[in-house]
Amino acid sequence: MLISVTGSTGFIGQYIVKRLLADGHTVRAFVRKGRSQALIDQNFPGAAERLQFHEGDLTQKESVSGFLKGADFLVHLASAHDHLGDEIMQAVNVAGTEHLVADAEENAAENFQFINVSSAVIGVPVYSYYRDSKRVQEKIVRGSSLRWASFRPTLVYGRGDYRHTAPLLRKCGAKKGSFWVYHEGLSKLNPVHVDDVVEAIVRCFTYDRGREDFRIFEIAGPEGISFNDFVDLTIAATGGGVKRRNIPRRWVERAILFKGLFRDVTKERRGAGYFSLHHDHDITAAREELKWEPRHYSQGVKDITKDDWWREDRSATGHTENLGI
Question: 22 CB contacts (<8 Å, ≥6 apart)?
């Protein structure tokens, strides 16, 4: 099959491209100008024969045209996050998705399916423009004339993620010091290994019901774990000597209130609200319909700390562009 991929040079995107090539598919990667080398340098088996590139800019409709010509599936991973600003998130997450839908409706294969990889934050009742832009993105796909499936992964971790996973591992793996948690640490997280995210997506290609029906799949670990357990498991896996220390949320809120007398503390307020909520997601649909089973974080964090790849700080090199989906 011909499978198109956006966000192909990012953290999850590179795992997707590698797996699709290994499974014998032809991959057409949407890349910004000059970024194809990031995939070429990976030397994925099968890339020379079955990896194609389409250079363009999702914010420019004319440069998207033809990307989905003859494609059987699109795995839409590309996304802009809060640190890029509202205008860019609007242009990429919303307008970019509209451009892809238009191209698919005009050029894709007859039984084409749009696989949208969105975000679990869609359901989180804490305001952020990113969350709202991803909700709109999903609605655009669902409201189109295309067959679609939507995946909502939660906190994705894995080897090669130098933007999020590696800094966490280095912090937890320090020989001494404190890991400060600015709340009681009882709220639940549900991290999911990047290989498990990829496995869920590729199972959708042969999901017969998906040819007739439209589905939303929450993608997370098998069960939620408390933030404190998340930190403690990471410290243990990295062999760190740091001590987790919690500051009660009431004291954090008082500190934010005091800071608010002198400067804008909107970001801090949102962060405090976010970690007062549980992030334990229902993965029943993926389990029952895709026959998918993720690994627990206690195993996953051991898998990614078997060697020292994470000890090198490469966050400023642009080695990966983890879109945090």
Answer: 44, 45, 46
> Is 85 among the domain residues?
yes
**Is residue 24 assigned to a domain?**
yes
Torsion of CA 44, 46, 47, 49, to 10 degrees: 170
CATH of the domain at 25: 3.40.50.720
Residue 184: CA count within 13 A, CB half-sphere = 8
CA dihedral sign of residues 207, 214, 117, 307: negative
User: Quick check: 64 and 56 in contact, CB under 8 A?
Assistant: yes
Q: Which residues form the domain of 49?
A: 2-160+191-221+280-295
Nearest to 322 by CA among 176, 210, 188, 166: 166
Q: Are 26 and 97 in contact (CB under 8 A)?
A: no
Domains identified in the chain, total number: 1
pTM attached to this predicted model = 0.90
**Which residues make Cβ contacts (< 8 Å) with residue 123, sequence separation at least 6?**
152
**In this predicted model, what pLDDT tens digit does every residue of 267-293 receive, in sequence order?**
777 666 666 666 778 999 999 999 999
Place of tokens 């609200």: 273
150 occurs within a structural domain: yes
Q: Residue 64 has which token pair?
A: 């998207």
Please, are residues 116 and 149 in contact by the beta-carbon 8 Å criterion?
A: yes
